Amino acid sequence: MYPEKYEEKSLHEHILLRPDAYIGSIKEHNQPLWIFDEILLNAANNKRRDPSMDSITVKIDAVKKSISVRNNGNGVPVVKHVEKNVYIPQVVFGHHLTSSHFDDNTTGGRIGYGAKLTNIFSAKFTIETADGKNKFKQVFKENMAISSTPIVTPCQSTNKWTQVTFNLT
Hints:
The chain has helices at residues 11-17, 38-49, 88-94, 114-120; strands spanning 56-61, 66-71, 124-131, 134-141, 146-147, 151-154, 160-167. The chain is an alpha+beta fold. Strands 1, 2, 3, 4, 5, 6 and 7 form a 7-stranded antiparallel beta sheet that branches. A hairpin with a 4-residue loop joins strand 1 and strand 2. The radius of gyration is 17 Å and the shape is globular. It comes from Camelina sativa (False flax). It catalyses: ATP-dependent breakage, passage and rejoining of double-stranded DNA. Pfam families: HATPase_c (PF02518).
């Protein structure tokens, strides 16, 4: 009787099973609530890394049920992570508990959940970034369960930006 009641879930399974532990309630509400704004915080944090960044664009498409957040600052480096042997944008947006902000000098995104939680709760999540050398694009689907092979192409040195687009359904 007692052994059956103890379970172990992967981090991904636990996030989907108990979203309130990570982002609050996902139930429909008819009252003002704080919203999960991690992608916007990520874009704003880029200003710390790149003082020349001067634009964040948010597009909401009610028909497609998608939200895009784009900043014109330095993109995420499009190089392979030494230990993981995958591109850094893959690690940042598609691997749990990864971040470059495990310090106390950041507005948000300090624990490595933010973008991944947005990815996990999205039917489709697309990361695109350009670092002045290469442009990167990868699409995740079905709550981050499926990921496309990243597309990496050369770009001009003035081409620096990051855009995240996520679809709720």
